[in-house]
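Can you make up a polypeptide sequence alongside its tokenized fold?
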Amino acid sequence: MPKIPTISGNEAIRCFEKLGYEVTRQKGSHIRLHHKVDKNKKPLTIPKHKELGKGLLRKLIRDAEITIEALVELL
């Protein structure tokens, strides 16, 4: 299993937008994304921080139903 990369909130948002998610709202520094087509996928909440924690990024990957390798390819 590859290591989880260290990325910022903006980089994570760009990656998930490539997967079909779109920004629906923002409250403070937290941005909410929903999938455009598949409404059964969980919505994602990504903080707009300089660096996301490993645990948070792992949860976002799990909720989006992708692998770490797929995320690395999107970067």
